[in-house]
UniProtKB/TrEMBL annotation:
Classification lineage: Bacteria, Pseudomonadati, Pseudomonadota, Gammaproteobacteria, Oceanospirillales
Protein name in UniProt: SGNH/GDSL hydrolase family protein
Highest taxon in the source lineage: Bacteria
Record SUPFAM superfamilies: SGNH hydrolase (SSF52266)
Pfam families reported for this sequence: Lipase_GDSL_2
Keywords: Hydrolase
Species of origin: Aliikangiella coralliicola
C-alpha cells in the first residue's frame, strides 16, 4: 500500500477547475489508478488542500493529519504546495515572512521524515501580469519578486532536507502563463491544472519506483 498526501491551499484543493476538480483529482483519476494496477497494490491519494491556508496553518495540523493516514510501515509520500498565501502583502510585509516560512516548512518536513515519508515540494506558480503589484478581487496583494524569492527558499529547503523539488513556475511562464491562469490571476484554470497534474505525474514516475 502506498499513501500520497497532498497538503496545500486552494490550488491543491482544486479551485477554478470546474471540469475535473483540480490537479490532485486529475492525478487520482489518471496516473494513480494506472500506477496501482502496475504495482498490483493499493495507492491512496488524499487531497488535504485548504483554501487560504499558509504554512502557519500547516504546522498546526500536519502531525495529526499524517498520523491519521499513516499506519505502521505503510509507504507514504507527502507533497507540500505552499506559498501563494504566505507571500500576500499586508501592512508592507508578507503575511508569513521568509524566516517563518522556512521554519514552518522545515518543521513539517522533519516530522514527515521521522515517519519515514518521502517528500516532494512544489514551487509557487506565477501570477498574472494584470495583478502584479495590485490588490486583486480577493483584496490580496502579491508581487512576482516575492514568488521568485520564496521559490528559491523552497529549492534550498529541498536540498537541505534531502527532499525532492518540482519547479512549476518556469513551465507556466514558458507556456503562456496568462492562458493557464483563471480570471483572478492566481489560481490555474482547467488548462493550468492539467499542466500541473502532468508535471507532478512525471515527477512521481521518477520517485515512486523506489517503492516497487
Amino acid at each position: 500500500m502506498v499513501n500520497i498526501l497532498c497538503f496545500g491551499d486552494s490550488i491543491v484543493f482544486g479551485e477554478c477547475d470546474q471540469n475535473y476538480g483540480g490537479w490532485v483529482d486529475r492525478l487520482k483519476k489518471g496516473y494513480i489508478e494506472q500506477y496501482a494496477d502496475s504495482l498490483k497494490q493499493e495507492v491512496f491519494l488524499y487531497n488535504l488542500g485548504i483554501g487560504g491556508e499558509t504554512t502557519d496553518g500547516l504546522v498546526k495540523r500536519f502531525s495529526v493529519e499524517l498520523k491519521a493516514r499513516k499506519i505502521g510501515k505503510q509507504k507514504t509520500l507527502v507533497i507540500f504546495a505552499y506559498g501563494a498565501n504566505d507571500i500576500v502583502v499586508h501592512k508592507n510585509k508578507n503575511i508569513v515572512p521568509a524566516n517563518y516560512f522556512i521554519r514552518n516548512l522545515t518543521d513539517a518536513i522533519s516530522t514527515a521524515k521521522l515517519e519515514d515519508c518521502k517528500v516532494l515540494i512544489l514551487s509557487l506558480l506565477p501570477i498574472s501580469n494584470t495583478i502584479e503589484g495590485k490588490v486583486n478581487q480577493h483584496d490580496k496583494l502579491r508581487y512576482d519578486l516575492d514568488i521568485q524569492q520564496y521559490n528559491l527558499i523552497l529549492e534550498k529547503i529541498s536540498v537541505e532536507t534531502e527532499s525532492e523539488f518540482l519547479n512549476l513556475y518556469s513551465p507556466f511562464n514558458q507556456n503562456d502563463k496568462e492562458s493557464l491562469l483563471s480570471g483572478d490571476g492566481v489560481h490555474p484554470n482547467s488548462k493550468g491544472h492539467a499542466l500541473v497534474s502532468q508535471l507532478v505525474r512525471e515527477k512521481l514516475i521518477q520517485m515512486l519506483p523506489a517503492y516497487h
